[in-house]
Amino acid sequence: MSMFSRFELLATDGAARRGRLHTPHGTVETPVFMPVGTQATVKGLTPAQLEDAGARIILGNTYHLALRPGDELIRDMGGLHRFMRWDGPILTDSGGYQVYSLAPTRKIDDRAAVFRSHIDGSLLELTPERAVAIQENLGSDIAMCLDECPPFGTSADYLRVAVRRTLLWARRCREAHRRKDQALFAIVQGGTDLELRARCAEELTALDFPGYALGGFSVGETPEQMAAVLGPAAELLPRAKPRYLMGVGRPEDVLAGVAAGIDMFDCVLPTRNGRNASAFTAEGPLRMRNACHKRDPAPLESDCPCYTCRHFSRAYLHHLFLAKEMLGPTLLSLHNVAFYCRLMASVRRAVEEGRFAEFRALSLARWGLSA
Amino acid sequence: MSMFSRFELLATDGAARRGRLHTPHGTVETPVFMPVGTQATVKGLTPAQLEDAGARIILGNTYHLALRPGDELIRDMGGLHRFMRWDGPILTDSGGYQVYSLAPTRKIDDRAAVFRSHIDGSLLELTPERAVAIQENLGSDIAMCLDECPPFGTSADYLRVAVRRTLLWARRCREAHRRKDQALFAIVQGGTDLELRARCAEELTALDFPGYALGGFSVGETPEQMAAVLGPAAELLPRAKPRYLMGVGRPEDVLAGVAAGIDMFDCVLPTRNGRNASAFTAEGPLRMRNACHKRDPAPLESDCPCYTCRHFSRAYLHHLFLAKEMLGPTLLSLHNVAFYCRLMASVRRAVEEGRFAEFRALSLARWGLSA
User: What is the CATH number of the domain that holds A52?
Assistant: First the structure.
């Protein structure tokens, strides 16, 4: 296990965990939500606004950054932290997911994933060694092994191929990884096949990575299908290490993840929905283009301490979106990130106080959902 | 003269003036530049960012706000200051300029300007009384009389018609204006015809408005044509009242305005150019999409104290614009507003110290221009 990225398990409540992750750029209280900064920016927000919203660790996308502006340029500029001026911890993904979700054509074999850039169509390849080299150039606090992440509905046969390749690539990533100030996490694949996930987790655990992720969720399966596998899948991961559920998700999915024993989450929803005029609130989502907000002097949430809620009415936000003003997406993204960060703070208190199940049931009821 | 909006002339340097404008929302040091907040937002910037950039007074557009979200809605939400959460002074224009520049069709006679909305094509009319009522609903600190502002190249005959109508409307605006916490400024028209401007200024001065604007500049004439008339036109305005040059302009035009004895300026350039990747600097403009910035670790300006320059490299800004990230327009707009505000602070010191002509010549030389 890496020396620098130490995880403390502070308390549990059922399977839910309360922990602390130490990184070279500071300590993160878990469970934690990581806003996504795909292209070296969490869309629409300055680092100061991001910090003000309560974000403590963010995610960067290896695939995007390697294509533009290039990982060597970022290295030469002093690394991703300095380039984008985010002084807190950064986790970078490995690009495996984006090869499937973004690249228009691809060919994957044991040697590499070869694909066309979605920016200029040029032919590129991602090997485990290259994925590690990119992330070492970026200088993230936590790097991820290159994995193969097929979509939901992939045949059982191919799922086995993908798991075998993910294991092969994890070993090669581990071998290639040099940076001592960066933790390399492994990714467990296997879709909704628990036996396959168990084998994958077992082999990866034997390699003693400093952290483990569940990949292959939020790739097209229903929330029910995810819920059925999530608990058992999380149980397969070593108890003493941080557990990260990649690309998840909606507030209710995050609560399901915490209930399953997950420590870390990331998702584009708070910023993407913010740009699309949808606000997260404790009473469920608000669509800010709706006419009902036109004359409403109330903030999005009366008890939210974010900059947006401290200053602006729903009427003003409604106006900004109707007038297509960029301040609307910025203010709503800021609030949505703050909403997720406050949700996680409440989650952490609930786990500490042994009332997470109650907190989750209450939250779902307030959002008009059932567990 | 209104009691609330008092102007102090502190010092002069040739025709250049150093003053202080007291408003219900605070005192403004002049010469001053007002960023434009057309739709109740200075595009891309929060009020906090705007204040951090050094802005002390901003402009709102009567035409846009009356169409959307509506001046009565803004009144019901507590006025424009509260609606957009800008606690400093606000000046609103009268909409006369926008009727010419934006409305797809229009018919103007002594009674009203009738035009189609550029938003939904509905038929609307602006009378002097309505322009005052809108601005009273908005609750700006400084309101402007409705004027007729024909483009450059208008016939001498029509220019006389426009001046006659501008005078007629100024009287009707003055008659209609009720708010004691709002100053109503008059606008002198007359194009490049100095005799016409003199008559217009004389008649308006007799009405003793608390402030005077020069309209009809930056409407298609060349900078040389403006320069030839600006000095004599400004001299026609009462010395004891603030003088506002509407819609001007580039940094060199602002310096020409100060040299002519102007106290107040507004222009969309800092934010519009910021959105289009063009940065103002003391060495002239930088086009941030240019490849020369790709690996430049320097800030836009090494001695600029704005948030953008304190934190980000040219390489990062270049990346944001290439990646079409909205943070690029935000950070560049912020810097450009800060550039204008710092320029005005330097102007004020130069006038105080009796070296404005020298300062102006030096600035133009640094920007690669001649006076």
Answer: 3.20.20.105
CB contact under 8 A, B68 and A329: no
User: What is chain A's mean pLDDT, rounded?
Assistant: 95
B109 lies in a domain?
no
CB contact under 8 A, B85 and A322: no
What does the pLDDT look like over A350-361, one tens digit per residue?
999 999 999 999
Question: Would you list which residues of chain A are within 8 Å, Cβ to Cβ, of chain B?
Answer: 39-41, 43-48, 68-69, 73, 76-78, 83-85, 294-295, 297, 307, 311-313, 315-316, 318-320, 322-323, 325-327, 329-331
| CA-wise closest residue to A323 among B272, B69, B115 | B69
Catalytic residues of A: 93, 266
| Omega prior to A44 cis, within 30 of 0 | no
- The reply to whether residue B307 touches residue A45, judged by beta carbons under 8 angstroms, is no
Residue A50 forms part of a structural domain? yes
Res. A97 pLDDT band, cuts 50 70 90: confident
Beta bridge partners of B267: B35
> What are residue B106's phi and psi, to 5 degrees?
-155, 155
Domain residues for the domain of B23 are: 7-101+127-268
With contacts defined as CB-CB under 8 Å, which chain B residues touch A47? 311
Which of B78, B323, B326 has its CB closest to that of A68?
A: B323
The residues pairing with B287 across neighbouring beta strands, listed in sequence order, are B278
ipTM of the complex: 0.97
Whether residue A255 lies inside any domain: the answer is yes
| Total CB pairs under 8 A between chain A and B | 109
Selected residue of B272, B316, B322, B332 to mutate for chain A interface (largest A Cβ count, 10 A): B316
Decide if B330 and A46 are in contact by the 8 Å CB cutoff: yes
Within chain A, strands assigned E span: 7-13, 16-23, 26-30, 32-35, 58-60, 90-92, 106-108, 113-116, 123-126, 142-144, 183-188, 212-214, 243-245, 264-267, 278-279, 286-287
Q: Cis before residue A69, ω within 30 degrees of 0?
A: yes
* Cα A242–Cα A245–Cα A247 angle in degrees, nearest 5: 140
For every residue of A215-263, DSSP letters joined together read -S-SSS--HHHHHHHHHHHHHTS-TTS-EEETT--SHHHHHHHHHHT--
Count of domains in chain A?
1
Q: Would residue B93 show up in a list of annotated catalytic residues for this protein?
A: yes
Asked whether A196 and A203 are in contact (CB, 8 A), the reply is no
pLDDT tens profile B261-309: 999 999 999 999 999 999 999 999 999 999 999 999 999 999 999 999 9
What is the band of B1 on the pLDDT scale with cuts at 50, 70, 90?
very low
Is residue B56 a part of any domain in this protein? yes
Interface contact flag, A329 B326, Cβ < 8 Å: yes
Quick check: B274 and B335 in contact, CB under 8 A? Answer: yes
pTM strictly above 0.90: yes
**Which residues on chain B place their C-beta less than 8 Å from a C-beta of chain A?**
39-41, 43-48, 68-69, 73, 76-78, 83-85, 294-295, 297, 307, 311-313, 315-316, 318-320, 322-323, 325-327, 329-331
Arithmetic mean of pLDDT, A36-64 = 97
Q: Do A326 and B44 touch (CB under 8 A)?
A: yes
